[in-house]
């Protein structure tokens, strides 16, 4: 089943998450129509290779053309229209930057895998539960309801101001009519009656002026209360959700809803401002003793302006945190002289501001780094699929100043990756006579000068965003706080779900907890230090816990990803637990686990039964990325052979734990079927017999000492069979020179 087919079977709450990251940058129609073709391409590799990305973009457009031909024959007018629009959009947007669409599609596929992984996990962690709190959802609904009510109140007040204006015009006309009469006419009874009517009308005007000012005051008060309480909390919650999403957590939504609220409030405040201006205009035409307008209007206008200032300042946000396109799963880690992207949005979406706001990007004020590239751009509504007022910087590069380069040699790598910086943005809004200066900053970023520093830099980003919701504590690592172990384990599971498409289950997390704490613990409220996580070596090892875990992530990503996604790699299980699981199983049952002593290594252990009925276990030396580059791991499991002393080589691996036939589990991942391997009779190029690598180990029955690891021997299966027929076991033994390693 394709990944897209699995996505379509998700529950609605997960489908809503999928919907959030498909827009005009990569329309969902294309994802749906070209699902299998899209999933068969290596978009991640293309995101770092312009030539490959160019070819993939051309092939994508060809695929769209083929779909256009198909739907044209079916005379599906709506789909024809949409595909033509999408093709034009894709070609126009990415013709000059094909790597950008490769990054977007790679990210979309990765997010799909993360959501599929999250949907398969039975239990939510404490962080995810807190983000999906029902109280928060109720507050969101209340905010939207109150904003709508405020907008209606402001519009109703508009009608009151219009009525007041009409009433005053009538009064003004009738009053001027009387004033134009001769003095003798003014003493008539009819005129005196008219004067009494005008006095009553003036009383009504006074009442209506007070009523309008009172209504305006109530609208202002409601906006003030909403901004001070619920809207501020909503914005802070969104920023916290963004922090969590940046370190692999659930996708954060809600910015469009916040934009709607901010925009409606801004429109309401500007509407109130116009009402106050209208009252000032009415005041110039008519005033009287006890007139409420000159007393109340200045105070109300001052309050409106104050609220507008605050609303605009809070509306300037970093929509997408700084990230290198080459490492989309590692945001906020920036390498010097490498481009990164960052996107900002003004949550107040007013047409008058389109292309009128220029944003300047700078780096923090310590003068150690400067930003190269285009660092001033105008916000607009054309580049975003949803028409938001935003700006995306795509060509910024951090550069270290020469004056500070000499001091860098005195700092160890851990000091570099614990130093936090901030990308700052400033602009100015000029609208309806108001001038408002706006500033915002990214979450803290870590600068690196070498890719080898990236793992420890990413550990710093994880720890910061897990431990605090303070967006600008650049001195955080002067005294980093401890983290709750249960929350840390949840975040570690996110690293696997976001980076390699499948999170960790409770058993795997328990093993990591024991690895961190050195014993079996109840980790719900246990506090873990930063040093224990990233700086102190594991007992008896030359590396830290994080370096060990990061090496496993890299191994999965580059060499065993399909097997991991299928859930066939138990991975995190101790040697002791491994034997408990296997001891009562059928001989030949095996499981796959990550090495605890070798960085980035994976091994397999199987259970066997001796002639006397005793159970024995065998583990091969861990395979690392060097050996897995020579032969896919699934093929190793298929072709693996063991030579028992004086016995015929055989594959001891029969069932994947608990009882899955090996070929059923891994068959679809074999690079070729056994019967497809070339035989000597097949010939081969220039008379040579095609060869394959076969992993072979030897078990010595008279020794319990660990031996040297097995190697991969380059020979075809058919040649190996011929050797077995013509050579004695002793000769094969000498030639193979490989022995099983007991771990």
From TrEMBL:
Coiled-coil regions, chain positions: none
Cellular component annotations (GO), alphabetically ordered: cytoplasm; nucleoplasm
Alphabetical list of Gene3D superfamilies matching this protein: EF-hand, SH2 domain, STAT transcription factor, all-alpha domain, STAT transcription factor, DNA-binding domain, STAT transcription factor, N-terminal domain
GO molecular function: DNA binding; DNA-binding transcription factor activity, RNA polymerase II-specific
GO biological process: cell surface receptor signaling pathway via JAK-STAT; defense response to virus; negative regulation of developmental process; regulation of apoptotic process; type I interferon-mediated signaling pathway; type II interferon-mediated signaling pathway
Keyword set includes Phosphoprotein: yes
Protein's UniProt keywords contain Transcription regulation: yes
Family annotation (Pfam families): SH2 (PF00017), STAT_alpha (PF01017), STAT_bind (PF02864), STAT_int (PF02865), STAT_linker (PF21354)
Residue stretches making up the SH2 domain: 564-666
Superkingdom as given in the UniProt entry: Eukaryota
InterPro entries cross-referenced by the UniProt entry: p53-like_TF_DNA-bd_sf, SH2, SH2_dom_sf, STAT, STAT4_CC, STAT4_DBD, STAT4_SH2, STAT_linker
Keywords: Acetylation, Activator, ADP-ribosylation, Coiled coil, Cytoplasm, DNA-binding, Isopeptide bond, Methylation, Nucleus, Phosphoprotein, SH2 domain, Transcription, Transcription regulation, Ubl conjugation
Localization per Swiss-Prot or TrEMBL: Cytoplasm; Nucleus
SUPFAM superfamilies the UniProt entry points to: p53-like transcription factors, SH2 domain, STAT, Transcription factor STAT-4 N-domain
Family: Belongs to the transcription factor STAT family.
PANTHER family registered for this protein in UniProt: SIGNAL TRANSDUCER AND ACTIVATOR OF TRANSCRIPTION (PTHR11801)
The protein's name: Signal transducer and activator of transcription
């Amino acid at each position: 089943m394709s990944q897209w087919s699995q996505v379509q079977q998700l529950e609605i709450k997960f489908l809503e998450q999928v919907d959030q990251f498909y827009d005009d940058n990569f329309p969902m129609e294309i994802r749906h129509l070209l699902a299998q073709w899209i999933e068969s391409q290596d978009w991640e590799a293309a995101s770092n290779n312009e030539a490959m990305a160019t070819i993939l973009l051309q092939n994508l457009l060809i695929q769209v053309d083929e779909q256009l031909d198909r739907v044209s024959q079916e005379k599906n007018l709506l789909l024809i229209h949409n595909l033509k629009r999408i093709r034009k959009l894709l070609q126009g947007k990415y013709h000059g930057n094909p790597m950008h669409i490769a990054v977007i599609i790679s990210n979309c596929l990765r997010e799909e895998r993360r959501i599929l992984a999250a949907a398969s996990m039975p239990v939510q962690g404490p962080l995810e539960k807190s983000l999906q709190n029902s109280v928060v959802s109720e507050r969101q609904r209340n905010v939207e309801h109150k904003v709508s009510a405020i907008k209606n109140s402001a519009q109703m007040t508009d009608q009151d101001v219009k009525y007041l204006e009409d009433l005053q015009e009538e009064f003004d006309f009738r009053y001027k009519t009387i004033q134009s009469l001769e003095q003798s006419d003014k003493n008539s009874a009819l005129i005196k009656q008219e004067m009494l009517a005008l006095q009553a009308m003036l009383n009504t005007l006074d009442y209506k002026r007070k009523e309008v000012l009172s209504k305006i005051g109530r609208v202002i008060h409601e906006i003030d209360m909403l901004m001070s309480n619920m809207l501020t909390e909503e914005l802070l919650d969104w920023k916290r959700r963004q922090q969590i999403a940046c370190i692999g957590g659930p996708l954060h939504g809600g910015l469009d809803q916040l934009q709607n609220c901010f925009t409606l409030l801004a429109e309401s405040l500007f509407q109130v401002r116009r009402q106050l201006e209208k009252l000032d205009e009415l005041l110039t035409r008519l005033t009287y003793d006890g007139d409420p307008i000159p007393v109340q209007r200045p105070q109300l206008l001052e309050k409106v302006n104050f609220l507008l200032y605050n609303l605009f300042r809070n509306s300037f946000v970093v929509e997408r945190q700084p990230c290198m396109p080459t490492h989309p799963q590692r945001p906020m880690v920036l390498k010097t002289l490498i481009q990164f992207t960052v996107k900002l949005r003004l949550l107040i979406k007013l047409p008058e501001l389109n292309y009128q706001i220029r944003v300047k990007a700078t780096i923090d004020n310590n003068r150690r780094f400067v930003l190269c590239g285009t660092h001033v751009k105008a916000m607009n509504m054309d580049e975003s699929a949803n028409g938001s007022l935003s700006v995306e910087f795509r060509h910024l590069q951090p550069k270290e100043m020469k004056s500070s380069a000499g001091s860098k040699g005195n700092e160890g790598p851990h000091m570099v990756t614990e130093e936090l910086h901030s990308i700052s943005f400033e602009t100015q809004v000029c609208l309806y006579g108001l001038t408002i200066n706006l500033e915002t900053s990214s979450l803290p970023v870590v600068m690196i000068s070498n890719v080898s520093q990236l793992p420890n830099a990413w550990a710093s980003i994880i720890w910061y965003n897990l431990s605090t919701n303070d967006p600008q504590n650049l001195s955080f690592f002067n005294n980093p706080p401890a983290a709750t172990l249960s929350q840390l384990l949840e975040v570690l599971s996110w690293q696997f779900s976001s980076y390699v498409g499948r999170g960790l289950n409770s058993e795997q997390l328990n093993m990591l907890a024991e690895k961190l704490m050195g014993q079996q613990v109840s980790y719900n409220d246990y506090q873990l230090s930063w040093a224990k996580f990233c700086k102190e070596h594991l007992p008896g090892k030359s590396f830290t816990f994080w370096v060990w875990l990061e090496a496993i992530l890299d191994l999965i990503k580059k060499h065993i990803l399909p097997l991991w996604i299928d859930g066939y790699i138990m991975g995190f299980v101790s040697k002791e637990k491994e034997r408990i699981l296997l001891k009562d199983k059928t001989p030949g049952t095996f499981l796959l686990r990550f090495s605890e002593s070798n960085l980035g290594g994976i091994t397999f252990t199987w259970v066997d039964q001796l002639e006397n009925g005793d159970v024995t276990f065998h583990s091969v030396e861990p395979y690392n990325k060097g050996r897995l580059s020579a032969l896919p791991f699934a093929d190793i499991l298929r072709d693996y052979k063991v030579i028992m002393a004086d016995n015929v080589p055989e594959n001891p691996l029969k069932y994947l734990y608990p009882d899955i036939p090996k070929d059923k589990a891994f068959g679809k991942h074999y690079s070729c079927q056994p019967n497809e391997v070339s035989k000597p009779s097949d010939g081969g190029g220039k008379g040579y017999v095609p060869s394959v690598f076969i992993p072979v180990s030897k078990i010595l029955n008279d020794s319990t000492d660990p031996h040297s690891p097995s190697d991969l021997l380059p020979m075809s299966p058919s040649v190996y069979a011929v050797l077995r027929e013509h050579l004695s076991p002793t000769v094969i033994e000498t030639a193979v020179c490989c022995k099983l390693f007991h771990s």
